[in-house]
Specification:
heterodimer, A: 292 residues, mainly alpha, 11 helices, 75% helix, globular, B: 402 residues, Rossmann fold, seven-stranded mixed beta sheet, three-stranded parallel beta sheet, 13 helices, elongated
Chain lengths: 292, 402
């Protein structure tokens, strides 16, 4: 296959559409893990729930899938706050860091099973889905699926907006301070538990919003979440733990590498290429591409 | 004290007298026929198991018990009791449970789990303990190679299935309606075997294949594959797919603006869900086995009963075969009882009439059903090929995507 400009455009746009989704879902996980050292294995399950809620609202009441973001996002944020208060705050209080990671891991595994089975009861295991903007978008002599481009653009916009918020707002600065120097941050009067709750909620909200976007593209099953959790972990490791900009860029990079592999070789190479990148980074720069 | 003692003695006497009474009553109400199986209620196999197999098991149980139970030769009717768990789509969980069913629970009969890979793992267990098992959702030429005497497959296997597709395409090409085919297959036992069968079948039919591409299970983007086929000028798409990638390929074909004259996909096309998902899916072809229009006895009643009990239609491929496998077992038990080696002997020797048509096993493979191609036309999956089974004529080129 020759490397024509059209092919290059296909790869770049395809890579960005995949990568934008990866970046947003990874950002949520990174926020939780980077700040609290809480590895939320149930991260993808919130994506699944967001997808189902959008599906139900769209097919049941005819709500525009994009408008449902305004419902899934805030709801998931509130759910995150409650979950943090009920489950994670007691766990985080007065525990040594070593036992914290393993306990939070167990907790989120439990959460994963509960959420999967709840979804199974509500929506059953049948494949569910709908078509939204499933129309070709012609640009520079090639064709793109309109819904994918739109979903990725929204995901990227949200990701960048969140990054800027962390960078420039007071709350954002407090979050970064807590990540860099937890004890020092507490010394200058940053309220750890409040920030923890907010970040946990925000992480879950990002996962749910990604789910709403993903529901426009793929079929839903109660078990769709786990692959996204795994991809998000890969992206977080690539970008560096707790590094939000790195996370955004790593998501895009992973999307590009996978798409290039698919176009230039075969679809079978998708997973191989993404894990090859991960292995390379782990060998050459274990702290992540953009890690300190 | 004495009073209490007397009361106790009285109660004991009544109790002792009641024991034989209870026993006889228990004997009169014969103990149930216990049938064991696992199906995936969770995990990746849950979709297929929940559409094709589980509804038929419960429908059949309800129908049989409503008649007063399963007729067992020489014993009258006995209620059917299922012993089952969710295998969570984990093969080792299923294997362990089947071992337990055979050795610990000592159930009377076994029913198969869902899917080729699961059946592959369970078939040797069934054979080891001498339980005849009829798999309605197992496709693989390897079953024949394994030659497990107690395992039977209902569905048409890869070679005859793809020969039917090839024969239909040859017919269409001779009419000048199609020219070039392109094949995409899922990189999993099912896709690989069907693709292996496609090569020789298409070659024998003299069909031109311009491109063949594989993709992994769980693929998230098939547009590069589809665009490649479109650019190569293919007007026949053969997708040897599983349900999620089937939906993806169909969605994306529309997105990349490709509407080939023949659009054929694998597992999932025959699900009513697929039709509803794509606004009728008018003109899409796929592997078929059955629809409520077939002329076999009980077919329409089965369809209606399924809809009534589950509020959803059976699929147009394997559902009826899942139900038919239970009809076959029912007949065997009615004619020879629960002696499993004798059931096996009857399975080997008899041609059965079922809602899915005649079924005859030769070396464990159902040879009475041909490879069938279907096409969604006005909300029904019409059978197109072979001509002797057809309920409708092929619409080619396929209409534009809805």
């Amino acid at each position: 296959m020759t490397l024509s400009p059209t092919l290059l455009l296909d790869v770049v746009v395809g890579g960005f559409t995949t990568g934008g989704i990866y970046a947003l879902v990874a950002l949520g996980l990174n926020l939780q893990y980077g700040l609290m050292r809480v590895l939320n294995v149930a991260h993808g399950e919130f994506l699944m729930l967001g997808a189902y809620v959008t599906f139900s609202l769209h097919t049941g009441w005819g709500v525009n899938p994009l408008l449902t973001l305004l419902i899934t996002g805030p709801t998931a944020f509130a759910v995150g706050l409650v979950l943090h208060r009920l489950l994670y705050a007691p766990l985080l209080a007065g525990e040594a860091a070593e036992s914290l990671e393993s306990r939070s891991l167990l907790l989120s595994f439990g959460l994963m099973f509960v959420l999967q089975n709840a979804a199974l009861l509500i929506w059953s295991a049948d494949l569910k889905g709908y078509s939204y903007l499933a129309i070709p978008l012609r640009w520079l002599g090639t064709v793109f699926p309109a819904n994918r481009v739109l979903a990725a653009a929204i995901a990227l916009a949200l990701g960048v907006a969140f990054y800027l918020y962390l960078r420039y707002s007071l709350t954002g600065k407090a979050v970064r301070a807590l990540m860099q120097e937890p004890e020092g941050a507490q010394l200058v009067g940053i309220q750890t538990s409040r920030i923890h709750g907010l970040c946990f909620g925000a992480g879950i909200a990002m996962s749910a919003v990604t789910g709403s976007l993903v529901s426009m593209l793929f079929e839903l099953t109660p078990f769709m979440g786990l692959p996204y959790t795994v991809t998000a972990l890969v992206v977080v490791i690539l970008g560096g733990l707790g590094n939000m900009l790195g996370c955004l860029l790593a998501g895009l990079l992973l999307g590009l590498v996978e798409t290039a592999g698919v176009y230039l070789a075969s679809s079978d190479i998708r997973l191989i290429s993404s894990y090859a990148v991960l292995s390379l980074i782990l060998i050459l720069k274990p702290s992540g591409l953009f890690g300190r | 004290m004495t009073l209490r003692r007397r009361q106790f003695l009285k109660a004991a006497a009544v109790g002792a007298a009641a024991v034989p009474l209870l026993r006889t009553r228990a004997r009169a109400q014969a103990k149930p026929v216990r049938i064991g199986y696992t199906l995936s209620a969770t995990g990746p196999y849950a979709v297929g198991a929940g559409i094709t197999q589980a509804p038929n098991y419960t429908l059949w149980q309800e129908q049989v018990n409503a008649k007063g139970g399963l007729a067992v030769k020489g014993e009258g009717r006995r209620m059917v009791e299922f012993v089952s768990i969710d295998d969570r789509s984990e093969i080792e969980t299923a294997v362990r449970f089947y071992e337990k069913l055979a050795t610990d629970d000592k159930v009377d009969l076994l029913l198969p789990p869902w899917g080729s890979a699961m059946n592959f793992a369970i078939a040797p267990v069934a054979t080891k303990y001498g339980y005849p098992m009829i798999g309605p959702t197992a496709i693989s030429g390897k079953f024949k190679e394994l030659a497990l005497p107690y395992f039977y497959t209902m569905l048409v296997q890869p070679a005859p299935q793809m020969q039917a597709v090839a024969a239909m395409l040859k017919d269409l090409r001779d009419q000048g309606k199609i020219k070039k085919a392109a094949v995409a297959y899922v990189n999993d036992l099912f896709g690989i075997e069907l693709n292996t069968a496609t090569g020789p079948a298409f070659k024998a039919a003299g069909l031109e294949v311009v491109d063949t591409k594989s993709y992994p299970l769980g693929a998230k983007d098939l547009s590069p594959v589809l665009r490649g086929f479109k650019d190569a000028g293919a007007d026949v798409f053969i997708g040897l797919t599983y349900p999620p990638d089937n939906i993806l390929a169909t969605t994306q074909a529309k997105e990349v603006d490709w509407n080939p004259a023949v659009f054929f996909t694998g597992v999932g096309t025959a699900f009513p869900f697929y039709r509803d998902r794509f606004k009728g899916a008018e003109g899409v072809m796929g592997i078929a086995g059955w629809n409520p229009k077939v002329k076999f006895a009980g077919a329409k009643d089965y369809f209606d009963a399924h809809v009534k009990k589950h509020q959803k239609e059976p699929d147009r491929w394997a559902s009826a075969f899942a139900y038919a496998s239970l009809q076959i077992l029912e007949r065997c038990v009615g004619e020879i009882g629960l002696d499993r080696p004798k059931i096996k002997a009857m399975l080997d020797a008899t041609e059965f009439q079922t809602v899915a048509g005649p079924i005859k096993f030769t070396k464990g493979e159902n040879v009475a059903t041909p490879g069938i191609v279907g096409q969604w036309q006005k909300n029904e999956f019409e059978l197109l090929w072979p001509k002797s089974w057809a309920t409708g004529a092929a619409v080619v080129p396929k209409p534009a995507w809805a």
